[in-house]
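Sequence in, structure out.
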Amino acid sequence: MRVLWVCVGCISLALGAIGVILPLLPTTPLVLLAAFAFARSAPRLRAWLAGNRIFGPIIADWEARGAIAPRYKGMACGAMCAVLAASLLGGLDWWLIAVQATCMGSAAAYVLSRPSQ
């Protein structure tokens, strides 16, 4: 199980790092997932991640207050809107757009309900 958690953590962290540059990937949840996975498998990797100057504050804010910074809230909601708009412009079936809108609307509501700092 330990190797599986390390793999989940590494993949999540890699995708989260890509999400810093590419706004369609949600950095914050992926970094939090990596921290969770590393906590169960590799405490040294977890400590390194928590001390990282880019990802550390995300983890600290979440652990202290369940907070998501306003910048990341905006990026997450913007990316969700962009994906939904692309689906509409792409002519996807109505039922698929409805499922996307429901899932992303729920995710956006959760993100926006979290404290900002």
